[in-house]
Amino acid/amide ABC transporter membrane protein 2, HAAT family
Amino acid sequence: MSDLLRRLPLALGVLVAALLPLLATDFWLQAGLFAMAAVVGAIGLTLLVGVAGQLSLGHAFFAALGAYTYAWTAGEIGGRAAGLGLPPVLALVLAGVVAALAGALFSPISGRLRGIYLGLATVGLVFLARHLMVNLETVTGGFNGRTVAPFAVPGFSFSNSDPDYVAVAGVEFEGLHRLWYLFLAVVLLAAWLGRNLKASRTGRALANVRDSEAAAAAMGVHVARAKVTAFVLSSAYAGIAGALMALAYGRIAPDLFGLQLSIDFLIMIVLGGVGSIAGAAAGATFVVLLPLVLVQYSSELPFLASPGSGGLEAATLARLLYAAAIIAVLLFLRGGLAGAASRLRHRRDHSPPDTGGPPPVPPPDSTDPAPAHPGVPPRSKETTS
């Protein structure tokens, strides 16, 4: 019964997410697609940082690799930025595979470094990605980027160009509605795989490496191989996230995959709780939706100025709120949102029942000796000379 109660919030959350396209406007649908794409990438990074104890600031590189792999393999043959014309389903799979292969090629470095040293090494990948995206114009479209082919499966398209009319409960399901359920399915699969990985033998080995490499090696764990495994899995998650970002935007450019994106991914898992799948999802949703909501409703908020006016803009306020949230989490919410939720659940499960009667009488002091005979008071602790 307790397991059912613990899974009830997850089931309700999935149900609400499945029903949202029937009620939400196009703005919220588009924002939800951005958030779900970020959730996949954040799950991959929290597996790397929280489970394996490896720091990476190159998540944007693998996201860019996945995005351009999808755009190139699914793109039409011919034109300035030509493509291979492969089925979009295969292109989505290749986005994760190519990113994982790139992570494996980085294994000589990721298998030997850890902590801040690995983080600094991965920063170079972001600059490498920028150089490749700008100069490989036949694949990436150069500085201006390239359009992204819409997702489709045999007999069904996820774009507005599909002539088939689909309506549910009187709501016409256009491209955003259809992509919503595709993204939701990918998010649920990514979360399920990540949770199973944490509970598996591989996940326990990665946790041992995080806690102590020497102890893990003494237990028979191949430390370098474990590090490479975590990095490859995280890279695959980032590649899939990049492909979803490409589908959500419809057009990609190098500016989307800068160092700021890697920092945003790191903020997501810190706010949500490093090592937590649900925390990564909550942190990603907060980081993505906050600036979008502020920009959308900036005209209705009196303390926000329009862009270029010199006042407090929505993007600047979002960064300030990020900074305040990070400081608050580090000082008062160790473990992030997931840690706070876990502590609240623990207090609820272990709180004494409220019977409505008088408080219980405390037990007698065990230091007082019991009377030798009934009716005789115990001897005083003070002795007289």
User: Anything to note?
Assistant: DSSP finds 15 helices and six strands in the chain. The two ends are 65 Å apart (CA to CA). The longest helix spans residues 223-249. The first strand starts at residue 146 and ends at 147.
